[in-house]
Each structure stands twice: as C-alpha cells, then as structure tokens.
Amino acid sequence: IVLSFGFAFANLKAACPPDYEEHWVDATYSYFAGGFTCDVRIYFCCKWDNNLKQVVSQIEWVLPRYNNCLRYLPRWSDFLLWLHQTVAYWANRVCMPEHPPCDDTVNVEFKVVVKKPRCVYWENWEKYPGDYVTRLVFCGYDINCNYVYKVCIDYSVNPPVKREIFLYSYADEPLLCPTEEPQLPPPGKRWDEPWMTNCFAKPCE
C-alpha cells in the first residue's frame, strides 16, 4: 500500500461536522495479488474525544485519481476492508494525542473508531471539463458500519512504531436504503455526462 499527503483537488472539501478536523489522503489499493491497482483520494473527518479516550473518524467520500477504476473492482468487501484500515491508520496519526504503550494493561486504552455509512451512491462527476470519473459518495451518518481499533506505541521494536490493532465491528440498525445495487450507468445516461444513482447499501464487513 502506498500512502501520501498532498494538496487537494480544487473546490473539493469534506463536509465535516462541527469540532471535526478535515483530512484527505492519496492511497493505492492493490488487488489480484498486486497485478492491478486503483489510485484513490479519501476524504475523512476526525476528532479526539477526551472523555472516551478515542478518535472518532468518518469517511466522507472516495474519488478515483486518474481513471474510473472504482467501477471495475472485483470484490467490494476487500476494498471496503482496506478503506477503513487506511482511514484508521491516518486518523491514528493526524487526530490522536500521545499514545500509551501497547503492553499497558493498567491505563485506559486509546481507540480509533472509523464510521462508514451503510448507504452510498455513485456519482459520475466532471473532474475537469469533459473528463468524468465515477466516485463513491456516502448518503449520511445516521446508520453506519463501525470499526473499532486499539491504538498504541509498540516499544518492542526500535524505533518504536504506532500500531492499530483491530478490536471489533458493529452495524447500526435499521438499514434505511435498499440492498440492490443500481445499474451503471443509469438507464438513459452515458459515461460522458453527469449523473448520480439512488442510495443503496454496501454490506458491513
């Protein structure tokens, strides 16, 4: 996995709630044993909750950087697993205060909670004049897939490294959108024009 920070595309922002920090990251998803890749830009929001000792982060949307590779991913469950692991990795670095040691069994654990809405839609978006890409957009944050990680510093290696250790996941209920995926492009639409689908559900993994 290749990850990097940089300057965002013009006029693109994450619609973060109050008190959340806005962040984005460029990342490369590899599949079919690394034979194929999909370069994406992930926009997310996060904040530190000092009472709960955890970072709460939510994924805003995902945009392919160079082509329409999101259309062709063979296993969405693998991509979504990679997506929330990637956000947990970066939220652990940009929104988190100093970490406790990984072998600390006395003090309260620090955690990262990644929220991914269960309902999403496809949007064919004009990235540049005449150049369209299909991006995955989330429909809201009332009903989420939630992924909880313990975060800590591992002092058993030199130099010490920050770790994200998956603990558990859970899904909010009830599901408020259909599970049937829409046809792409929608009937009567083309790849070279703007459109968006209705909201539909991606499974929690």
Would you spell out the secondary-structure blueprint of this structure?
Elements: E1 2-4, E2 21-31, E3 36-49, E4 54-64, H1 76-94, E5 110-117, E6 119-128, E7 131-138, E8 144-154, E9 161-171, E10 195-196, E11 200-201
Parallel strand pairs: 4-5
Antiparallel strand pairs: 1-2, 2-3, 3-4, 4-7, 5-8, 6-7, 6-10, 6-11, 8-9
Report on the architecture of this protein.
- This protein has 205 residues and is mainly beta.
- 9% of the residues lie in helices and 44% in strands.
- It has one helix and eleven strands, in the order ββββαβββββββ.
- The chain has one helix at residues 76-94; strands at residues 2-4, 21-31, 36-49, 54-64, 110-117, 119-128, 131-138, 144-154, 161-171, 195-196, 200-201.
- Strands 1, 2, 3, 4, 5, 6, 7, 8, 9, 10 and 11 form an eleven-stranded mixed beta sheet that branches.
Oligomer: single chain
Describe the main β-sheet briefly.
11 strands, mixed
* Shape designation: globular
How large is the radius of gyration? 18 Å
| Average of pLDDT | 84
Number of strands: 11
Calculate the terminal CA-CA distance, rounded to whole Å.
Answer: 20 Å
- Sheet-strand content, in percent, reads 35-45%
Number of helical elements? 1
The H-and-E topology, N to C, reads as EEEEHEEEEEEE
